[in-house]
Amino acid sequence: MILVLAKEFNSFLNSLIAYVVIGAFLTAIGLLMWIFPETSVLEFGYADMDPLFRLGPYVFIFLIPAITMRSFAEEFKGGTMELLLTKPLTDWEIILGKYLAAFLLVAVALVPTIIYYFSVYALGNPPGNIDTPGVIGSYIGLLLLAGVFCAVGIFASSLTSNQIVAFIISAFFCFILFSGFESLSMLIAGTGTGLAVKQLGVLYHYEALSKGLIDSRDVIYFVSVGSLMLLFTRIVLGSRSW
To answer: What is the pTM of this model?
Structure first.
């Protein structure tokens, strides 16, 4: 698994994908936090990082599929999947290696945003007037969300040899998981099942973590959904005839 992880991560760094993804993410979040008047911290007047944690997931919906779309699709198209399977690696080692490489790249993209925390911390009146536990919880939620989206992207990439198709499938599934259940629960609100449907979605658990309260039920939810997506990937790979 470590060999696959190292190979995949190095391939990201040796191509434009990593730099484009990190640059696009930081540019988008930077514009939303500091430039656009509708979301700017400077215009809003409150010392918080709400633009990052509220809008970051929607940026992830497009950026993470761009990272994961090549994971298996490129192997299928280039005919290198058969070669990879001849190596002394199990299917799970291949899947987890590719998954962790994509997740690590997203985590690296998040690291520079810590500068935003110290900036908002200094701009507070008085300085330091920021909900630090809420920020920590939101970062944990964002990382867990990235983990789920990476798992969805890996699964989507295992379904096709076309990277564009993999990107579209992944972005669609990520959007449905994040806000689809929330929208559905609003349509059936008052029927007694609205809350249950809402709890099936990622947004409900992400917002709970953003309050700074790390509930094991929310963490288990993210881990379970990510694991389920990886299990689906293993089933798809196992069903192919090589």
So the answer is: 0.89
- DSSP character at residue 180: I
Structure tokens at 64: 């993470």
Question: At 34, is the secondary structure helix, strand, or coil?
Answer: helix
Of 79-83, 119-123, 171-175, 193-197, highest mean pLDDT: 171-175
- What is the 3 state secondary structure string of 7-33? HHHHHHHCCHHHHHHHHHHHHHHHHHH
Instruction: Evaluate whether 53 touches 155 at the Cβ level (below 8 Å).
Output: no
Distances (CA, A) of 134 to 13, 138, 139, 228: 32, 6, 9, 28
DSSP, residue by residue, 124-174: SSSTT-S-HHHHHHHHHHHHHHHHHHHHHHHHHHTT-S-HHHHHHHHHHHH
Rounded to an integer, the average pLDDT of 164-174 is: 95
Residue pair 141/102 in contact by the 8 Å Cβ criterion: no
Residues present in the chain in total: 242
For position 45, what pLDDT does the model report?
A: 62
pLDDT-derived band at 165, boundaries 50, 70, 90: very high
pLDDT tens sequence across 210-219: 877 788 899 9
Token pair, residue 217, equals 């039920």
State whether the Cα torsion 52-207-100-61 is positive or negative: negative
Task: Please answer whether residues 194 and 188 qualify as being in contact, where contact means their C-beta atoms are separated by less than 8 angstroms.
Answer: yes
Bond prior to 51 in cis (omega within 30° of 0): no
